[in-house]
Specification:
Blueprint: H1 4-14, H2 27-35, H3 50-60, H4 65-78, H5 86-95, E1 111-119, H6 125-130, E2 138-146, E3 151-157
Helix pairs in contact: 4-5
Length: about 160
């Protein structure tokens, strides 16, 4: 007999994310630390602290950079701060030196990766054939699966 209350609680916990926005209270201090290596270098200083881009990097594992900008704009309404555009977010996230926790990887794991296009709808097939509608009804999916545990490790769709 399956305990559906426990199953439901476990599914809800999968979506639970604990985010600490205390870096917003220390924006100027974080920004000073971020700009410290640039003190002797010519050129403009950073306008945003690295902590903001660590948050953006995390959010980007779930959604795209333009959507990350939208999430940050929404967050900025709760706690007032300047929001960078998606290009700045993309460039700064790429510069971060992100590290994996090696203790989590001590046993190692095998990942199988696949990507595929999924046809969303058949609606308008005749219009595409005639040439009046150029857009395709496809979603591109990328999925990484932990082979041993048989669990989805990561997925992204476009």
């Amino acid at each position: 007999m399956r305990d559906w209350r426990k199953v439901n609680d476990n599914l809800v916990k999968r979506g639970f994310i604990l985010l600490d926005f205390s870096f917003l209270d220390r924006w100027d201090e974080e920004l000073a630390l971020t700009n410290k290596p640039k003190a002797s270098v010519k050129g403009p200083k950073f306008k945003y602290p690295n902590a903001l881009f660590y948050l953006a990097a995390f959010l980007n594992t779930l959604i795209g950079f333009r959507q990350v900008e939208g999430v940050l704009q929404g967050l900025s309404k709760l706690r007032k701060f300047r929001v960078p555009d998606y290009t700045t977010i993309f460039r700064r996230v790429r510069r971060l030196k992100l590290k994996l926790n090696a203790s989590k990887l001590k046993d190692g794991f095998i990942v199988a990766i696949d990507s595929s296009g999924i046809k969303v709808t058949n609606r308008g097939e005749w219009l595409r054939k005639v040439g009046k509608k150029k857009r395709r009804g496809w979603i591109k999916m990328h999925v990484a699966v932990d082979v041993r545990k048989k669990e989805i490790a990561c997925s992204k769709s476009y």
